[in-house]
Design brief:
Immunoglobulin-like, 21% helix, alpha+beta, 5-stranded antiparallel beta sheet, 2 domains, 168 residues
């Protein structure tokens, strides 16, 4: 009969192998593609954005609450559309239930409201990434507003999340 000490190196190697496979599966499962895909599944070229309107307080705004973190990045203006990159992360909420196209509104300094023209996002479960697009407010394109706010309502029990970019 073999001694249990002789099995320890084998068990240790098996445990390390399993840990490496689990880590690889987690990394692969939590990764998202950086390529843009159209609804028909064909990869599209990245958008080019106008650098003339860059927020003074940074491109990325963050809100954490209700066990969900949302990062919104100002991508800029493309073909008269104001575009934001949105990343939502959690370990306890199914993020696929949230349609930011119906839960979001854009406000300018004058109080004008703009609804999204599109929300493009693939399902992601606990890690979701997408593009939220609005018609560019006239006040922004004409330089008549000091800020714009993106308001996202009712995600993970948080009534309102406000993301504000200073543009003057």
């Amino acid at each position: 009969m073999q001694n249990s000490r002789e099995h320890k190196p084998v068990f240790r190697m098996v445990a390390i192998g399993i840990a490496v496979l689990v880590a690889a599966a987690i990394i692969t499962g939590c990764s998202t593609s950086l390529t843009t895909q159209r609804k028909d599944g064909v990869s599209a070229a990245p958008l080019s954005y106008s650098p003339d309107k860059v927020p003074a307080n940074g491109l990325v705004q963050n809100s954490t609450g209700g066990a969900v973190s949302i990062d919104v990045k100002w991508l800029g203006v493309d073909n008269d559309k104001l575009v934001f990159d949105v990343s939502m992360d959690t370990h306890s909420v199914d993020l696929d239930q949230y349609n930011l196209g119906s839960l979001s509104v854009l406000l300018d300094e004058q109080g004008n409201q703009y609804i999204p023209t599109s929300w493009q996002s693939a399902p992601g479960g606990h890690h979701r990434k997408g593009t939220l697009t609005f018609a560019t407010p006239d006040s922004l394109s004409q330089g008549k507003t000091k800020y714009v706010e993106l308001i996202v309502r009712d995600v993970a029990g948080v009534g309102e999340r406000v993301f504000k970019w200073e543009v003057s």
